[in-house]
């Protein structure tokens, strides 16, 4: 028996929780490096401070994938318990993040935030395979991408909107995160939990007995194994299609990690000519117990400047940096908006037409790579970042749908959660390599300017595009319409 096809609003509701998840990811991606810089981190240290995020994914996703495959709660079902747990933890982490007073505190909360987001996110990918027949899976992943695009655009613009519309200040003393960012993270926490609850209350999951009746169910279950044995066995016996898609994912996610970690210092400096000012250049200094130079602070823990002129100069430069950071975040949101438009167009097209997933993904990644490379050629022209991030959004929309659609067509349904979790190894490993120095090393091969991190991102995305030529599995490549042409 085939799974029944679902209407658009059923698929929309089951994917709506991704709006909250993407609010968390987008605030993290557009603002986290700004928080690190505000708390005193050097731009070359920022990728390493981000390492908590991919490490959390590497550890959490296969475990959550296995557990969600083997869970059934009489009220919440198979995947929804993990949506709820992750949403609660993520919302708490989002509320506390902008109140960090030290770099290590922000890095620790980033670990908690990313681990929590992964608890919610990983089962969402598997839910599409649980609920939809094969003919609708690309459609389902594209709808998820549509919702992710909305979340990325809105959340990336939040700090700027809070400052412009609510007139909440984007300025703060040295080492303090601005109030506009604090409010934006609070809004993100509310949206996260609310969106997840919409999916939980509007979506019914198939029970294990119901799933067993469908054609794509496992007919002769293999001997039950423990979690660690199952996960390690899945890594060892990884299907060939997953390995080939993994090459594409490796270069793709290295590129986007470079953007998330270094776009703010790169673009505020190269495009806006407004780098984060180093307060030590404007303040009275002393040495700590290790002989390192530090700024002097008064009884209220505020920086003691050399004189009033230096205090004013620092404030003006910091204001320029914060305004540039707001605008970078807003411009980055365009890639979410473009991915939304891309997903919407793909949704309508794939409803009635076959597509070649491989070539769509290949072309999309090439366009994204060109978007990154274009950034180097537009110093002093921030409006042209709209072109860059629009092209990047096409790549992002494809990354969030095509690889998962190709994979879901080629793996066993009863292991879908675990397979999606293991597949995400190809997301987190490139990010870990980038974080421990890969992106800074490659950037410095071109030049010391941080804009070259975006150049590396462009090169890697184009390599990812041509890596699609490795994929030859016809079932994975070809997508048939999800709605009959009757």
Automatic annotation (TrEMBL):
Localization: Membrane
Record InterPro entries: MFS, MFS_trans_sf
Membrane-spanning residues: 7-27, 47-68, 80-97, 183-201, 245-263, 332-352, 359-379, 385-406, 418-445, 451-471
Main location: membrane
GO cellular component: membrane
Membrane topology: Multi-pass membrane protein
Keywords recorded for this protein, A-Z: Membrane, Transmembrane, Transmembrane helix, Transport
Entry's Gene Ontology molecular function annotations: transmembrane transporter activity
PANTHER family the record matches: SOLUTE CARRIER FAMILY 45 MEMBER 3 ISOFORM X1, SUGAR TRANSPORTER
Name used for this protein in its record: Major facilitator transporter
Organism for this UniProt entry: Nonlabens ulvanivorans (Persicivirga ulvanivorans)
């Amino acid at each position: 028996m085939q799974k029944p096809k679902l209407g658009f609003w059923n698929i929309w509701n089951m994917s709506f929780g991704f709006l909250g998840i993407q609010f968390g990811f987008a605030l993290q991606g557009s603002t986290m490096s700004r928080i690190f810089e505000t708390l005193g981190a050097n731009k070359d240290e920022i990728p390493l401070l981000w390492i908590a995020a991919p490490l959390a994914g590497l550890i959490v996703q296969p475990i959550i994938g296995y557990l969600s495959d083997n869970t059934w709660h009489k009220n919440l079902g198979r995947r929804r318990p993990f949506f709820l747990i992750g949403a609660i933890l993520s919302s708490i982490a989002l509320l506390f993040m902008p109140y960090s007073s030290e770099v290590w505190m922000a890095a620790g909360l980033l670990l908690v935030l990313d681990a929590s987001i992964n608890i919610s996110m990983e089962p969402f990918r598997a839910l599409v395979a649980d609920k939809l027949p094969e003919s609708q899976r690309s459609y389902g992943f594209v709808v998820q991408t549509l919702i992710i695009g909305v979340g990325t655009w809105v959340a990336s613009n939040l700090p700027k909107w809070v400052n412009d519309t609510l007139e909440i200040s984007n300025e703060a003393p040295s080492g303090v995160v601005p109030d506009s960012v604090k409010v934006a993270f609070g809004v993100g926490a509310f949206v996260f939990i609310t969106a997840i609850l919409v999916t939980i209350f509007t979506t019914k999951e198939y029970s294990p007995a119901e799933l067993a009746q469908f054609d794509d169910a496992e007919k002769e279950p293999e001997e039950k194994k423990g979690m660690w044995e199952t996960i390690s066995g899945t890594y060892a016996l990884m299907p060939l299609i997953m390995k080939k898609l993994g090459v594409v994912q490796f270069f793709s996610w290295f590129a986007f990690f470079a953007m998330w970690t270094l776009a703010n210092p790169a673009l505020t400096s190269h495009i806006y000519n407004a780098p984060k000012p180093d307060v030590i250049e404007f303040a009275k200094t002393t040495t700590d117990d290790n002989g390192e130079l530090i700024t002097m602070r008064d009884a209220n823990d505020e920086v003691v400047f050399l004189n009033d002129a230096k205090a004013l100069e620092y404030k003006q430069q910091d204001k320029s940096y914060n305004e540039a950071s707001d605008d970078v975040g807003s411009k980055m949101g365009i890639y979410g908006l473009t991915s939304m438009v891309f997903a919407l167009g793909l949704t309508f097209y794939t409803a009635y037409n076959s597509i070649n997933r491989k070539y769509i993904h290949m072309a999309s990644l090439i366009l994204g790579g060109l978007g990154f490379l274009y950034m180097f050629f537009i110093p002093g022209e921030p409006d042209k970042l709209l072109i860059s991030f629009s092209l990047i959004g096409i790549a992002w929309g494809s990354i969030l749908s095509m690889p998962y659609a190709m994979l879901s067509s080629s793996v066993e349904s009863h292991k879908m959660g675990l397979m999606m979790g293991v597949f995400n190894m190809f997301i987190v490993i490139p990010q870990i390599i980038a974080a421990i120095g890969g992106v800074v090393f490659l950037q410095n091969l071109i030049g010391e300017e941080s804009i070259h991190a975006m150049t590396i991102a462009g090169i890697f995305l184009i390599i990812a595009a041509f890596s699609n030529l490795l994929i030859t599995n016809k079932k994975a490549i070809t997508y048939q319409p999800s709605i009959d042409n009757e």
